[in-house]
Amino acid sequence: MNQPPASPSVSVDDFTTDFISRLHNSRGVDLESASDNDLYSALAWTVRKHLIDRWLVTKRVQRENKAKTVAYLSAEYLLGAQLHNMLLASGLGTVARESMASLGLSFDWLAELEVEPGLGNGGLGRLAACFVDSLATLDIPATGYGIRYQHGIFRQTFVDGRQVEQPDNWLELGSPWEFPHPEASIVVHFGGHVEHTTDAEGNDLAAWKPAWNVLAVPYNYLVPGYGTQNVNSLRLWSARATQSFDLQIFNSGDYENAVRAQTYAENISQVLYPEDSTPQGKELRLQQQYFFVAASVQEMIGQVGTSLDELRTLPQRVVFQLNDTHPVIAIPEMMRLLVDVYGMEWDEAWGITRSVFNYTCHTLLPEALEVWSVDLLGRLLPRHLEIIYRINDDFVAEVRESHPGNELLVRRMSIIQEQPFRAVRMAHLATVGSTKVNGVAALHSELLKDKVLVDFSNLWPEKFTNVTNGVTPRRFVKIANPGLSSLIDEAIGTDWVKDLSQLSRLEPFADDAAFREQFRAVKAANKTRLVETLRKRDGIELADDAIFDVMVKRLHEYKRQMLKVLHVVTLYDKILRGELDPESMTPRVVIFGAKAAPGYLMAKEIIALINAVGATINADPRVKGALYVAFPANYNVTLAETLIPAADLSEQISLAGKEASGTGNMKFALNGALTIGTLDGANVEIRELVGDDNFFLFGLTEPEVATLQAKGYVPSAYYEANASLKNAIDLIASGAFSGGNRQTFEGIVSDLLWHDRFLVLADYQAYIEAQNVVESAYADQDAWAKSAILNVARSGFFSSDRSIRDYLDRIWHTPAVPVQ
Ligand code: GLS
């Protein structure tokens, strides 16, 4: 494996000496008595040591330069395992491996001991992790701000095929990758009331008298760039009580009440809300949001300086990117600091605030747009609510001035909704308070302008822009797919890891028979690797000579795992009916991976159905060798890194107009899977780039969906008119997958027939036909390999480095600061 310039001074012997001294000095053990965790921790510390000098220099250079910093505000970072990434950045992969071998330790075994930090739900959180990687790689001064959840995304288990959630106690054994700084804690206030007085000139002065507070304790994490000296920081805040014990209560003997305050405060960073693409209107969640942005904004301001002259330089010193609406309370917080705390005039403060914030919207589902009831917001953050009202008054006046008499428009655009309850619309607040608003794929940004935020884009067309998402090629190709990486290195050199557009130079190799042969060998080896992983991890036994048809993503009705299930059931049904000969079909292994939000009952039913269908099919000798369903529990970043490189077919089958972008779709294409997909999210751009011939398109387009829904969609009509669809649904309804119990999946069946909000039945026939095309295409293995190579060669656009360059050009305008 090609490595970037390593720290040349590190020999295997030095590394080993260091490792042993780590065991002694930091863990108080010797090699013989070391536990697994001792060994892993010592290894991690030995590696991270080689990045710390770079980190310190980076911080010094950025400070001395007064460099403009990107402050990425995100409630989620789905980081994945750290060790491999740190080894890649330090160039110590081979040294570490040889060093462990010299001690008789298996490096791979040690690496597997790491519990990945799952501080995010899905695409949105993983995107944040890719973005901080790319920012560091591009030498952009940047800090990722977020929450150090004590418990990340739940661990999914299946009991009788149903999802059961287990807490993810990732910090149980400590994390060797974090640097706590309790001395730099910041106090964050909540509750209370606001007192108003008037100064000598008759100006209103507001003083917030909060009722309680917590400490935000920062934990720093290294974010090393690839092939650069630059190392940025991720700063995650952990909540701690300001006074651990209320001494008075404690002395009076009420131990329980004394610790209650502490528990209450520390609850704030206890757990990640496991919702994805749906908001959680819970008080604790609003506390989390304010907690982390208040600490982050205060810290940034502290770096710039708090005199009025220094505060006026904020737009030259920092740009805040709001990752969805979760951190949007930062806008009124900035106003509060500038006006109430530092005494700036409102209008000047508003000008500065608007120029330092930008907002990324990640959804198209109206129900996913966050609102906070004014009752709750007023109780928790009374001064912020006042500020929001004033921002809204000024904004509404602006709308009235440009559209006199159009009160309907005013009501639609207002930051405050009146019905069904009075609440703050966070997306509106974000749009009003930001310089730029972006969507995350070309289609999404258009729909944002034309539908979700149409009134705003009419008022301020220049505010709206697009930045198509991307993924880091370091983690998702270089680390996850070493076989493909070496093949690419041999063909076009190693620069692609930092400049993914170079992949286009692979195109001619698609016509090279020897290269195609090697490419297929890599895919076959990746499949074998996955088979071994699933055997060890889940006790699943897969054949590796089948088409690997993969659908991994959060379980959500709009993503339409249900459509995939109907396809599987159709194949099964046709085999049972003798309409399909299992001997003559291409063996197919269908692999699902999906977590459902714990409160999302329909999603959990669909999980149970997938497991039930899998259990029945896998046990049926009539389909043995032809069709197999695998659903490993607890799909996470670590499993993704083995699964994606092994896939032949990537399922991206959401209803057009619902998936904002998707990023899994990009990872699959980059690893040489062909996509079967709708014209939704970034699929549109993937298809444009890889070419129509190398993409299996099906399904209604977004305008067709709108037309069909406007005219009145009747799913049962599709059921009645399509025999194979009817057979599949009837088979589910008959209890064939539920031990004869017709009630088990009745909810799913009746929802499909009478509601089917995401038009599964409308797209069924087109999907089945597209799968038939897949089946015949796969029969020509050589032609398939050519298409797969072209997918790789033409997917360079989907690097998160390119996304970050787009943010720099279109939104941030932040110069790089290379570190020597
Ligand atoms: C999401 C969208 O659903 C995805 O389509 C998108 O790729 C991702 C990152 O932009 O953001 N929005 C969300 O709430 N969760 C997501 O994964």
UniProtKB/TrEMBL annotation:
Which catalytic reaction applies to this protein?
[(1->4)-alpha-D-glucosyl](n) + phosphate = [(1->4)-alpha-D-glucosyl](n-1) + alpha-D-glucose 1-phosphate
Enzyme Commission number(s) from the entry: 2.4.1.1
| Keywords associated with the record | Carbohydrate metabolism, Glycosyltransferase, Pyridoxal phosphate, Transferase
Keyword Transferase tagged: yes
Q: Which residues carry this modification: N6-(pyridoxal phosphate)lysine?
A: K667
Per its UniProt record, the required cofactor names are: pyridoxal 5'-phosphate
Family of the protein in this entry:
Belongs to the glycogen phosphorylase family.
Name of this protein: Alpha-1,4 glucan phosphorylase
